[in-house]
Amino acid sequence: MNAKKWxxxxxxxxxxxxxxxxxxxxCLLGYILVRGLPHVTWQFLTKPAQTFxxxxxxxxxxxxxxxLLILAMVISIPLSIxxxxxxxxxxxxxxxxxxxxxxxxxxxxxxxxxxxxFGFLVFVIQFKLGFSILAGALVLTVFNLPLLTxxxxxxxxxxxxTQREAGLALGLSRYETVKHVVIPEALPNIITGMILGxxxxxxxxxxxxxxxxxxxxSLDFTNWNPMYIASPLNPMRPAExxxxxxxxxxxxxxxxxxxxxxxxxxxxxxIAVLLFNWLARVIGKRVYRxxxxx
Length: 294
Description:
Layout: H1 3-36, H2 42-46, H3 59-90, H4 95-108, H5 112-126, H6 133-157, H7 161-169, H8 174-202, H9 206-209, H10 242-252, H11 258-293
């Protein structure tokens, strides 16, 4: 068999493998959406959950998920951008930076339940934060920070060295070159990585079981004072997220419509994660077009 025939065989095999993976993913998503979407209504998205009676919703859990996500990203984005810029632009090539990069790789591969137990021991017990949104946001920062840092570093390193030389040749300092030349050029990849990281955090459950808690107390949406105990913005209250709610229903749910609530919540979670991935592509492309047009 000549090289052209082997090339066709290899192409067919790889295409078949890729098609099989796409088919499995489509079947999984289709199964979840077909079972869950009929139960998703406006009342289901806004009503609080019920423990013993049917007809409950996911309103509080959905709000908790977005609030926890925003708080975690507010903490992790500045840290990851600073760490990524230092590693890509300023860190010397020695054993110290090699150890730092190895530590980042190890942290990014840790199981989420291990990170959750770490957060329980450190934030919940040692720092006495209790089961709270703040403890959950901090553990999500630990969980997501290595991935975001690696994303920023890779995005900056993908910029060709001639861009830096051009900035320095124009009389810009190293800091000004990074700020005005390198970062704007890498911004589409950075934004894409941040949005994908947000989607990964939104669907996290294991790390939050031990930190944010498994209860969703009633919220007073008429009082947004963060110091008020029932305020939606109170960072010290426990907050069961949507992913934790799904796990809890399937493990110990006793409401009559537990199957329907679990299916509907799973469909909402899948749609949210798909939207994060779609937004990452759309926003990344738009930012790239604006940067190249400018």
